[in-house]
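Let's do one together. I've listed all components of the complex below, 358 residues spread over two lines.
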Amino acid sequence: MAPRKQQEIFDATLWMVAEKGYDGLTVEGVAERSGVNKTTIYRWWPSKAALLGAALVESDVLAFEPPDTGSFRSDLVALVEQVERLLTEPPGSDIAVAALAAAVRHPELDARRFFADRFARERVVFERAVRRGELSGSADPLLIMDLLAGAVWMRTVLRGMPLPDGFAKKAVSALLDTF
Amino acid sequence: MAPRKQQEIFDATLWMVAEKGYDGLTVEGVAERSGVNKTTIYRWWPSKAALLGAALVESDVLAFEPPDTGSFRSDLVALVEQVERLLTEPPGSDIAVAALAAAVRHPELDARRFFADRFARERVVFERAVRRGELSGSADPLLIMDLLAGAVWMRTVLRGMPLPDGFAKKAVSALLDTF
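Okay, and this is what the predicted structure of the assembly comes out as:
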């Protein structure tokens, strides 16, 4: 399938799940919205769970490039700011939150792929920091991302609170500096 | 209403949301399960959102006592372990995850109350640490809890990964010790 056509299908999928929730997402609806035949979509993605899983990882809407600012601290701040944008700026926020709620209730929708894919790209920030001598080789990048990204999920999605100015910097400082 | 009766209603509410999700939760079902008249339930909680909101905060099933181990570090480890139990041990985990998914899609179900209530109780750990001189008075307890509790949500619910042994200790150490 042409990459552009594929992106149109992913767009339609993500918008539909953001608007109607996972229960309201249908391959028929995606077909109509993207102008692609339903059977074509099924040929590539055998279920709506597979379609949404692919869209979460491969859509340009949720595209993610790891920062390379020159220092570990400011790379981490940039990573946290990316999670902030994902969770607070539409359409990303509607999509992320709807897809999360769906993934929690429907394990067949493999949201782990989304997080695993993001973490695979975030790793480079830690590898560079170790090479530059800013981070011990024994540090645990997954744990550090759990703490930092988790803080943004916690504050925005779970607590339903606004993010104060400088949240990313303060979160990174809580981790890197002593109290 | 007698406290014991109220707990039976909350139990029925939490079990029903864990089993059937928020969409499957009905005041009729809770009435049947708890043996309380439907109109009585409505007199106390005007909607199923109000009922679930009250159950999340007031049920003994999700009861929470802040730890008091004598040191800030081990209090924090105990707090993280409580979140771990909440998110990994049934029935708490089924309830927490189902209620979260519901809260995200139904803002009228005020999940903030649950998190606000927990944080109000967690605060004492930080106040004691400041009094003992283990923590600066300018530290931000909400941010620290966002980082620590968020890490558990991230690893278990969002990434869908098991918690390794010693996760709580490592998370606290990442925060309190330098890398």
